[in-house]
Write a structure and sequence with these properties.
- The chain folds into 2 domains: 88 residues, Immunoglobulin-like (Sandwich), CATH 2.60.40.10; 367 residues, TolB, C-terminal domain (Neuraminidase, 6 Propeller).
- The protein has 2 helices and 36 strands.
- It is mostly beta strands.
- The longest helix has 27 residues.
- About 5% of the residues have low confidence.
Length: 500
């Protein structure tokens, strides 16, 4: 059937309009030039640069970059539409030349010419022989991630070290130390800040003999103890301080000192441990009279310090039936880690009891106790004492660092807990070498490749071991005592760059 002339004219008109629109878009894209490119180094860090870019017209852009001569290329995520941008380039290698292109998105992406920059040598104050050739140093055993460490003296810092011992990320705060830090689910670093003047400085690595000798020393010393803090800060992965909360600004004096752990929940609230006290007449239990007992609790606040929820161990503890209350009255529980179980309820390491407790985050009730005299039957071969860093690992098992004050052998342990039959089955048992015994602090984490990242805090050592602990693949040596070392997976940085 022959097409009517009027229909042909309509179709032709539509095609002509379409071609004109495409032509206009192409002309617009062609005219959207890059006006300026400035390279800066925020924080004067050799492994981090920032590109400041302006365009003639608003558009979305991204940056492709690579080490000169390398086939491995990286790209930043596409920006929102604007005419000016600040794009951080993170985890760069120092003293290295990079090539890069700026890509302006449009109907036809517009690529800049290839530009270059060279990172400078590492700052002398960040050079330290973390990984020594004479020790195990198989960088591949760590996988593609980094190791995060904190420094508690001043200036305090959080740093991330790669498998070769090079610092790849660093954040510093001048007026206070950093006791502990955690990655958040929001792609930031949450840090507990430690006031050195109020604390006892005991962060020089010890020999095995010195560690054994100090076992009789009381666990908590100084005004706030070894693991106390008085402030919290959140830091972006680009190194920018997002906010800082000084706990002394909170109206409740019991919240002015927090300790051991700080983490962020899915709602962006801050969860930490605090030290509620209780006045009690100890003459009722064979003591000298009225005294102030030291305990622990969980505090949940928002970023401004507003109280969301709290729990005190004294609300759950029967002092009258406690045979140890006089001996440990000033530090009865020594809770030393806080984490979320898979159902978002709390897991708390209760060191003095040699137990891990699960706390319902709505009701505050103790759901179960695991460990010595706890709710689960277990093989006593795997009994633990004064444990640290209790958490649920990627296999869904409860994992911890056994400081073993009685066995005097530190080891990473994990358990599958059956809350129907109330049995605990050991899954991982990975002892540290005898000369890496740590009576305090420390951590053990399951890596994505099946190895373990273990911290012998008192000896200033971080190890990558096999899952059974029989082989040490990698060793980091610190000039101070790291409270723990956490693993930073490679995909942590996907908000800032990915591999092409």
């Amino acid at each position: 059937m022959k097409m009517p002339e009027s229909f042909k004219k309509v179709v032709g008109g539509i095609l002509l309009v379409g071609l004109l629109v495409v032509a206009l878009l192409l002309l617009k894209d062609k005219g959207n030039n890059i006006k300026s490119v400035t390279l800066t180094s925020p924080g004067n860090l050799a492994f981090q640069n920032q590109l400041e870019i302006t365009l003639e017209h608003p558009a979305s852009i991204y940056v492709r970059y690579w080490i000169k001569g390398s086939s491995d290329k990286y790209m930043t995520p596409a920006t929102s539409v604007s005419d000016s941008f600040k794009i951080p380039l993170l985890l760069l290698e120092t003293d290295t030349t990079y090539d890069y292109q700026i890509v302006v998105e449009g109907t036809i992406p517009k690529y800049s010419k290839t530009l270059s920059f060279t990172t400078r040598e590492q700052s002398p104050w960040l050079v330290y022989n973390w990984v020594k050739e004479e020790n195990p140093h198989d960088a591949s055993s760590l996988g593609n991630g980094l190791v995060m460490l904190c420094f508690g003296r001043t200036p305090g810092y959080v740093t991330m070290v790669d498998g070769k011992g090079a610092i790849r990320w660093y954040w510093q705060i001048d007026d206070i130390g950093v006791r502990a830090a955690r990655l958040t689910g929001h792609g930031t670093v949450l840090a507990m800040l430690r006031p050195v003047k109020l604390d006892v400085i005991d962060d020089t690595p010890k020999s095995n003999a010195e560690i054994i000798q100090e076992l009789h020393v009381p666990m908590r010393r100084g005004s706030i103890g070894f693991a106390g803090g008085t402030a919290i800060a959140e830091v972006g992965l680009d190194g920018q301080l997002l906010w800082r909360l000084d706990m002394k600004t909170l109206p409740n004096p019991e919240y002015h000192v927090i300790h051991h752990d700080v983490l962020m929940d899915a709602d962006g609230n801050i969860c930490t441990l605090y030290r509620p006290k209780k006045i009690f007449d100890l003459s009722k239990v064979g003591g000298a009279g009225i005294d102030t007992l030291g305990g622990d609790g969980i505090l949940v606040i928002d970023k401004t310090g507003k109280e969301i929820w709290k729990w005190s161990v004294w609300d759950e503890w029967n002092i009258a039936n406690d045979p140890n209350i006089n001996e440990y009255k000033y530090d009865r529980f020594h809770m030393n880690s806080l984490s979320f179980d898979r159902d978002s309820n709390f897991l708390v390491s209760v060191a003095v009891e040699d137990q891990v407790w699960k706390i319902n985050r709505k009701t505050g009730k103790v759901m179960w106790k695991f460990g010595k005299n706890g709710d689960f039957k277990m093989d006593t071969t795997y009994s633990f004492s004064f444990q640290h860093t209790a958490h649920t690992n990627s296999d869904g098992d409860l994992m911890l660092m056994d400081n073993s004050l009685f066995r005097k052998e530190s080891r990473g342990l994990s358990f599958t807990l059956d809350t129907v039959s109330w049995t605990a089955t050991n899954k991982i048992c990975a002892p540290l070498p005898k000369n890496k015994y740590t009576s305090r602090m420390g951590s053990s984490y399951l890596l994505p490749n099946g190895n373990l990242l273990q911290t012998s805090a008192k000896t200033g050592t971080v190890l990558v071991t096999s899952s059974a602990g029989e082989n040490v693949h990698w060793e980091l040596n610190s000039f101070y005592v790291p409270y723990r070392a956490e693993y930073v997976p490679a995909d942590t940085w996907k908000k800032f760059f990915i591999k092409e």
